[in-house]
Each structure stands twice: as structure tokens, then as C-alpha cells.
């Protein structure tokens, strides 16, 4: 098989990534000094210790490993295995020296040397918004996420999130169902999509968007990976929207990363009585996030020139409902109610109700709250 220049550079960077003590910043310093060529692997102690940020201890240990045929052979085999696994997944290894590397990501303090990308790498270069939030999303949070993401996708913005349960999943789903682009940023290898094992969502993400990670293929979703993942979500995008989050959590880490990276932070206000909204409300209170009520609020900051021409989604076309579904919707006109009360009002059995309510949820006419309580969805217009 013919090896391209990009593959040769990826192989080299995968090799030096295995050097102890050589993180992304030191690796970039090595590449700047020796170039992305095999000459880098011939660097000796005297040359290495002259590089800013590489002290005597790391220079000595690095020189010893580079001079070891056994270490170089093993590191080369491991790197080649990663490229082979990427090929099997039809994935792309995008290096920081590649023109396809996301320009926004290059601006952060510690951009990764490589990204493993399944799907369309060009999706990483589109106008973009990160949307993150709690795994224990409320009905309000899910509806707000869908409302904002559909508008942003309709205005040409790629939606980035972490493919976690709750708000993340809703953000991705809203984007794909609006025929938009969405990118899932993982804290594990791109082959380990543990939150969607049945493949209900991630294949649709790959149709127009991408699944991306800096973690090597095969890496499990360890807790220590996720703070690094969070900085990628914010670093890849122009702004970050916090939908629902408690005071502590991954979403708040992502917001902190966005602020450090000098990116815009937005938050959806929530009830003062809801733990799920404490983080978002806190960010707004501290003037660290702009309150958001529609996609227009976000576009006004990210792209003011486009905001006046913001595409309007308009009211959805009426859905065709059967007789039983229409009776259920009519019963819910007065407000949320328990399934037993719905049964009394409609005359339907509980078993039949569960089937019809599930269909109405899929049609986005009804939403369920904890305790088998159902309500008619509120339709917001732009």
C-alpha cells in the first residue's frame, strides 16, 4: 500500500506521542525544531536539551528511547496499528500539520497533535456551537435544547456535543432531524460509542457530521479522559451553550474551558427551584454567560451580520392523528395529568394508552414527566 505524506506524518506523530513526558506542547516544539521528518527520531541528547520546555531529564530519557531499536520498533508497530484500525473504521487521522485540522482548535493553549475522525472532517471547520448539559435532563431542558438546536442547525451551524445521555443526545438528535450537521466529541476511542450501542443515533451523525476524539482507537471511557474531552468541545466551537447543569459537573468544566479559550458562553435560564438549572443560573448571575431565549440571541453574538436574515422555521405543519390520539390530545388541553386520569377521560385502557402515548411522543405532540405524568408539548414559534 502506498503511504501518503499525511500518513507518514501521522505515523511519526503517533510514535513521538508514546514518549514519556512528551505532551502536545513539547511534541510541537520537537516538530518545530526537527521538522515532521524521520530526522526527528534521530535527535540526540545535546539537540533535545536545547529545545525550550524540554529539560535535561526528559531530554536524556527521550534520547535513550529514540536510540533504542527495540523501543522504536515497538512504537512504530503500535503507531501503524492505529492507522490500520482507523482505516478499518473508514476514519481519518488529522494531524495538527494537516490543512484539514480545525483552525479554531489551533488557537487553544494545548491543542492535540492528532484527531481521530469518523465521518466528514470538513464538519469540524463549519460555523459551530457547542451544546452541553446534564445527563438527568428535565422535560424543560430537552425542549429548550431541541428548540435552540433546530434553529441553529437551520441557520447553518454545526452542533457539537459529547454524545452523553440527556442534553447531549437531544442536541445531536435535534440537529440530525433538522437535516443539519452535528459532531460528537468522545472521551474514548472513536470505536467505543458506549452511550448508543444499538446505533439509533450515531450512524445518522456520520451521514453528514462526524465523531471525533483525541484518544487512541480502543481507549475506554475512563473518568480522566473527560476533562480533556470537554476542552475539545469548547475549543472546536465559536461558543458554548449550557442548557442544564448543577453547580458542579462536566458542563461547568466545559464552560470554564470556553472562558479560558476566550470563547462565548451562553446559558438557558431555569427555575430557581431546580437543581438542574443551578449551574446555568450561576453563570448568568456571575456575568460569565449570556442568557439565551432563542437562537437569535446566540447569532447576535457569533455572527451579528447574519442575525437580521436569520431563517425562520415557522409553525410546523399539523400532524395527522388517529381518533384515539386526538382524544388524548384533547384531554391534555387542560394541562399535565397522570395516566390514570387520562384513561378516565378518554375511556382507553392503560395498555392502549401506553401505545398511543408513545406514538404521540415520537410525533413530538406529547411529552412525559416523572411519575407517568404526560403533558401536551408547547409549540414555540420564532
Automatic annotation (TrEMBL):
It holds the Pfam family WHD_DprA. Gene3D superfamilies: 3.40.50.450, Winged helix-like DNA-binding domain superfamily/Winged helix DNA-binding domain. Residues 93-302 form the Smf/DprA SLOG domain. Residues 315-372 form the DprA winged helix domain. GO terms for biological process: DNA-mediated transformation. It comes from the Bacteria. Belongs to the DprA/Smf family. This is DNA protecting protein DprA. It comes from Chlorobaculum limnaeum. The lineage of its organism: Bacteria, Pseudomonadati, Chlorobiota, Chlorobiia, Chlorobiales.
Amino acid at each position: 500500500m502506498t503511504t501518503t505524506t499525511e500518513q507518514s506524518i501521522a505515523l511519526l506523530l503517533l510514535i513521538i506521542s508514546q514518549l514519556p513526558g512528551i505532551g502536545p506542547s513539547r511534541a510541537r516544539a520537537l516538530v518545530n525544531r526537527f521538522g515532521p521528518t524521520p530526522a526527528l527520531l534521530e535527535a540526540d541528547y545535546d539537540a533535545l536539551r536545547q529545545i525550550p520546555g524540554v529539560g535535561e531529564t526528559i531530554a536524556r530519557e527521550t534520547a535513550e528511547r529514540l536510540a533504542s531499536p527495540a523501543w522504536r520498533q515497538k512504537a512504530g508497530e503500535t503507531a501503524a496499528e492505529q492507522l490500520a484500525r482507523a482505516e478499518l473504521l473508514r476514519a481519518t487521522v488529522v494531524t495538527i500539520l494537516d490543512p484539514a485540522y480545525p483552525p479554531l482548535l489551533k488557537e487553544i493553549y494545548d491543542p492535540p497533535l492528532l484527531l481521530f475522525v469518523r465521518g466528514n472532517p470538513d464538519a469540524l471547520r463549519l460555523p459551530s456551537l457547542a451544546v452541553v448539559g446534564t445527563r438527568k435532563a428535565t422535560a424543560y431542558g430537552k425542549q429548550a435544547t431541541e428548540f435552540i438546536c433546530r434553529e441553529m442547525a437551520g441557520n447553518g451551524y454545526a452542533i457539537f456535543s459529547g454524545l452523553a445521555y440527556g442534553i447531549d443526545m437531544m442536541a445531536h438528535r435535534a440537529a440530525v432531524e433538522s437535516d443539519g450537521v452535528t459532531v460528537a466529541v468522545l472521551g474514548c476511542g472513536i470505536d467505543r460509542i458506549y452511550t448508543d450501542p444499538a446505533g439509533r443515533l450515531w450512524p445518522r451523525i456520520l451521514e453528514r457530521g462526524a465523531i471525533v476524539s483525541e484518544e487512541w482507537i480502543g481507549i475506554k471511557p475512563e473518568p480522566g479522559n473527560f476533562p480533556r474531552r470537554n476542552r475539545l468541545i469548547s475549543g472546536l466551537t465559536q461558543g458554548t451553550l449550557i442548557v442544564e447543569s448543577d453547580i458542579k459537573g462536566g458542563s461547568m468544566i466545559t464552560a470554564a474551558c470556553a472562558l479560558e479559550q476566550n470563547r462565548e458562553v451562553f446559558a438557558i435560564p431555569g427555575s430557581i427551584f431546580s437543581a438542574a438549572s443551578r449551574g446555568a443560573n450561576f453563570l448568568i448571575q456571575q456575568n460569565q454567560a449570556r442568557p439565551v431565549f432563542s437562537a437569535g440571541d446566540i447569532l447576535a453574538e457569533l455572527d451579528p451580520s447574519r442575525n437580521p436574515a436569520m431563517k425562520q422555521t415557522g409553525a410546523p405543519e399539523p400532524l395527522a392523528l388517529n381518533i384515539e390520539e386526538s382524544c388524548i390530545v384533547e384531554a391534555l388541553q387542560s394541562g399535565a395529568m397522570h395516566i390514570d386520569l387520562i384513561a378516565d377521560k378518554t375511556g382507553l385502557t392503560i395498555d392502549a394508552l401506553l401505545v398511543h402515548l408513545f406514538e404521540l411522543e415520537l410525533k413530538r405532540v406529547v411529552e412525559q414527566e416523572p411519575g407517568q405524568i404526560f403533558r401536551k408539548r408547547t409549540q414555540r414559534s420564532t
